[in-house]
Specification:
- By secondary structure, the chain is of the alpha/beta class.
- The chain has one domain: TIM Barrel (Alpha-Beta Barrel).
- It contains 14 helices and 14 strands.
- The strands form four sheets. An eight-stranded parallel β-barrel has the order 2-3-4-5-6-7-9-10, surrounded by six helices.
Length: about 425
């Protein structure tokens, strides 16, 4: 049988990031990066999906699809446009968005940092700076004080490993430095930011009288396998890559840098997309593998492998898949991708409680612009018209049925992947 039901406490949602959907921000490092010609199709993040102008429509569409959980992020450059000067008008707009979502039965998981920085922080060296922790904690304090009465679930930082590597070890993100030393220093500084933010958010909301605070960080994880399982060098590279990219972060961000009786997360948040076939310290893919439109291998078993690694570390914490999705510009195989990844999670028996699909509406992808489409909803970038894709209809049916019927499974499995 290919049908399955979700556990009774399992929830489906969608995820986004401010820079990728909102528009209306010219003082961030990503707008500056666009001006310098670093976006593949020259898409403008100051436009993105114009979500701010389509907020009511997007929210109503989510509700119509049965989506009750939404992870979205703040744009730091709008909240603190000048160093130490916060915009209360921006907080008012964010507050209105949260209340609109909640009035439509949609709960919020709020991301504080998702790759983008205000230019004044970028010009200081961003998370390379020795002042970065205090600067970031000032932001976290203000966010919690202003929004903590209507938000109880927070992601402090999205994918610190991806941010550090792509920004400071040649990955194409601004400022695109190429130094392993800098990348490791950034990971260390972001670890301190996360741990102290975790404590600060809990402290502030406790003083407000709340006892339901939930805080974590969204960790990009992938499966690592040796290119040739018979070669010792490939096995060692796979093991080392896994440790450097995510294993070390698993322990130090969640437990701190020293052995102690402390845990700095209330849930384990996993962003999963693909697998790396390791024969060097580059992202390689096995020949004749199913791949998406960006050439990433489609490897559903990997999502359970990554969750299992975290579960072994902290078995008492629930697991949230805070991002999972695929670049499929013509919506040819997204239903199959979603089905196979969710089935892998259900079959694993792990305590996975939520799944946030990346993403809701086709959005501005960091380096690809709109040349790579991950959405359940199609965006016409000329008219900004939204149209639910067949994968979006499939996702909505999964929510309605709290699982997948045999008929739905047959439709999903009937889709064809591309192969490299």
């Amino acid at each position: 049988m290919n049908s399955f039901n979700f556990p009774s406490d399992f929830k489906l949602g969608v995820a986004s990031a401010a820079t990728q959907i909102d528009g209306d921000c010219k003082n961030s490092n990503w707008y500056d990066w666009y001006l310098k010609g670093n976006i593949k199709d020259n898409s403008n993040p100051d436009i993105a999906t114009e979500h701010r102008h389509f907020l009511k429509e997007d929210t109503e569409l989510m509700a119509q699809m049965g989506i009750c959980h939404y992870r979205f992020g703040l744009e730091w450059a709008r909240i603190e446009p000048l160093e130490g000067k916060f915009s209360y008008d921006e907080f008012k707009k964010v507050r209105e968005e949260i209340l609109l979502l909640k009035s439509n039965g949609i709960s919020v998981l709020l991301t504080i940092h998702h790759f983008s920085n205000p230019m004044w922080f970028e010009n200081k060296g961003a998370f390379l700076s020795s002042d970065s922790k205090q600067i970031f904690l000032r932001l976290v304090r203000k966010v919690t004080e202003e929004l903590g009465d209507i938000v109880n679930e927070f992601i402090t930082i999205n994918e610190p490993n991806v941010y550090a590597v792509n920004s400071f070890f040649g990955g194409g993100f601004p400022p695109n430095h190429n130094s392993l030393f800098k990348a490791l220093k950034v990971m260390k500084n972001m670890r301190k930011c996360h741990i102290e933010s975790y404590l600060l958010i809990h402290s502030i909301r406790k003083k407000m009288g709340f006892t339901d605070t939930q805080v974590g960080f969204a960790h990009h994880m992938r499966a690592f396998s040796p290119w040739d399982s018979n070669k010792t060098s490939h096995k060692l590279i796979a093991k080392a890559s896994k440790w450097l990219f995510q294993g070390n972060i698993n322990k130090t961000y969640l437990l701190g840098s020293k052995a102690r009786n402390a845990v700095y997360a209330d849930f384990l948040a996993v962003n999963y997309y693909t697998r790396t076939a390791s024969k060097s310290f580059a992202d390689d893919t096995y020949p004749n593998s199913p791949v998406n439109d960006l050439g990433w291998e489609i490897y559903p078993e990997g999502i359970a492998e990554c969750c299992r690694d975290l579960h072994l570390l902290l078995p008492h914490l629930p697991i949230y898949i805070t991002e999972n999705g695929t670049a499929d510009n013509d919506d040819r195989f997204r239903r199959r991708y979603i089905y196979e990844h969710l089935k892998a999670l259900v079959d694993s028996g792990l305590p996975v409680k939520r799944y946030y699909h990346w993403c809701f509406v086709d959005n501005f992808e960091w380096l690809e612009g709109f040349s790579a489409r991950f959405g359940l909803v199609y965006l016409d970038t000329k008219t900004m018209k939204r149209q639910v894709k067949r994968s979006g209809e499939f996702y909505s049916e999964m929510i309605k049925n709290h699982g997948v019927t045999e008929e739905m499974a047959a439709m999903a499995l009937g889709e064809e992947y591309s192969y490299n």
